[in-house]
Amino acid sequence: MRIQKSVLQSISLLVLLLVLIINITHVSCKSTIEPCSNADSCNALLGYTLYTDLKVSEVASLFQIDPIALLTANAIDISYPDVEHHILPSRLFLKIPISCSCVDGIRKSVSTHYKTRPSDTLSSIADSIYGGLVSADQLREANSITDPSVLDAGQNLVVPLPCTCFNGTDNSLPAIYLSYVVKPIDTLAAIAARYFTTLTDLMNVNAMGSTAINDGDILAIPIPACASDFPKYASDHGLLVPNGSYAITAGHCVQCSCGPQNLNLYCMPASLAVSCSSMQCKRSNLMLGNVTVKQGGGGCNVNSCSYGGFVNGTIITALSASLQPRCPGPQQFPPLVAPPTSVARDSIFAPAPSPLSDGAGSLSPRSSVVPGTRSIPGFQPANGPMSGLTSGASGACSSVKPLPILTSALVFLLVKFMISLAL
Ligand SMILES: *[C@@H]1O[C@H](CO)[C@@H](O)[C@H](O)[C@H]1NC(C)=O
Ligand SMILES: *[C@@H]1O[C@H](CO)[C@@H](O)[C@H](O)[C@H]1NC(C)=O
Ligand SMILES: *[C@@H]1O[C@H](CO)[C@@H](O)[C@H](O)[C@H]1NC(C)=O
Ligand SMILES: *[C@@H]1O[C@H](CO)[C@@H](O)[C@H](O)[C@H]1NC(C)=O
C-alpha cells in the first residue's frame, strides 16, 4: 500500500510538472508558417489597414511596391488625374501585392524596408505603421537590435512580412493568399463568408484545431485567382491575379484582369502603355486581347491574340484558333472603383473581399478604364487546376487554445494529489 501511494504521488507530481511546463512554454500563434525549400517566389497579398491618411504613393513606398500595382490590385481606377497623389483615408483596408520568397526554409516577404523617424519605436512601427503585420519582436530579431529603446532616426530596418504560397492553389484551384490580421470583432465564420470560402477551408489552410481566433492573429486566406502559364524565363512568370482585380505587367504595357464570370486571365494593352514593344500577334492583324468569332456549321471559330509573358523586354504574343460549341459573349471586366476618400463604418471592422466597392457609400463605381472592346477572353491558362496539393500541411501555426483544458487538468491533478497525500 505504502509503495503504491508513493508511486501514485510521484506520477501525479510528474504529470503536474509536465502540465506546468506545457503551459509556460506554450507560445500563442501569430501567423501561418509555410515551410519551403526552393528559391522561387510567388505573388501574395497583405491585408493592410491604413493607420493615417496617406497618399497612394506613400502607401506604395511603405511597402516598396509600384503605386500602379497597388491601385490595380484594389481595382481602383488608375485613369483619375494625378491618382498617385490621391490621399487615401485612415482606416481604409487595402490589399498590398507583394512577392513572397523563401527565407531560411520559411515563406516570408523580406523586400520591405523602413527608414525610422525620430518618434518611432519598434512597437509603433509594428503595430501602427505596418498594422500588426509584423511584431516588435520580429523587427528586433530581423535587424539584430540589442537595445530596442535606442532607435536612431534614419535607421534602415528590414520589415519581415507574413506570406504564403501553397503552390498557388487551394483545393487544386488557382489561388493567391492574403495575410490577414485578425481584428477584435472578427469571427472565423464571418471571415470565411466575407472571402467566399468555408470554415473548413480556412481551418485546413491555417492548420487550426478549432475556430477560435485572437485579435492580432494572422490568417492566410485563399482568394481564387487567374493563373498564367508564362515560361520560366519570362520576368512575369507565375503571375497570379486575384478574382475581381487587375495587374499591370510588361513594364506597364500590359494589363491583365481576372473575373468576374470566369477565372481565365485576360490581358490587353494597358491604358497607360507608352513606348512598348509590339503587341500585335504575328501573321495577323489582331492586337493583344483581340478575339474574332465566326459562326460556322460545326460551331464557333474563335481566333484570339493572347499574352504569353515578358521576355527580355519583348511582349510575347500567341495567336490561337479554336472551334467552340458556342460563340463567347463580350469580355467582362471586374468593376473599377474611384480612389476612395472616406471609409464606410462597416468597412472599418469588416473589410469586404473587394473592400473598396462594398459598403462605402461615398464611392461611386465608375465605368472601366479598360477600353470597352468586343473581345472575349483569349487566354486559356494551360496550367489549370493542379492535383495532389496539400494545402492543409501548412505547418506550425495553430490557434488551438490548450489553456482551459490544461487548467482543468491541473485542478483535477491537484485534487487527486491531495487525496493521495491524505490516504
Ligand atoms: C469572382 O468574383 C465575382 C464577383 O465578385 C463573383 O461573383 C465570383 O463568384 C467570383 N468567382 C469565384 C470563382 O470566386
Ligand atoms: C483590338 O485591341 C485593341 C487594343 O485593345 C482595340 O483598340 C481594338 O478595338 C481591338 N480590335 C478589335 C477588332 O477588337
Ligand atoms: C535574353 O537576352 C540575353 C542577352 O541579351 C540572351 O542571352 C538570352 O538568351 C535571352 N533570353 C531569352 C529567353 O530570349
Ligand atoms: C505545384 O504546381 C505545379 C504546377 O504549377 C505542379 O506541377 C506541382 O506538382 C505542384 N506541386 C505540389 C506539391 O502540388
TrEMBL record:
Q: Where is this region: Disordered?
A: 352-384
Which Pfam families does the record match to this protein? LysM
| Keyword Protein transport listed | no
- Highest rank taxon of the organism: Eukaryota
Q: Which InterPro entries match?
A: LysM, LysM_dom_sf
In terms of SMART domains, this protein maps to: LysM
Q: Which UniProt keywords apply?
A: Signal
Q: Could you say which residues form the signal peptide? A: 1-29
Q: Which CDD domains match?
A: LysM
Q: Where is the LysM domain?
A: 112-159, 178-221
Record flagged with keyword Signal: yes
PANTHER family in the record: LYSM DOMAIN-CONTAINING GPI-ANCHORED PROTEIN 1, LYSM DOMAIN-CONTAINING GPI-ANCHORED PROTEIN 2
Q: What is this protein called?
A: LysM domain-containing GPI-anchored protein 1-like
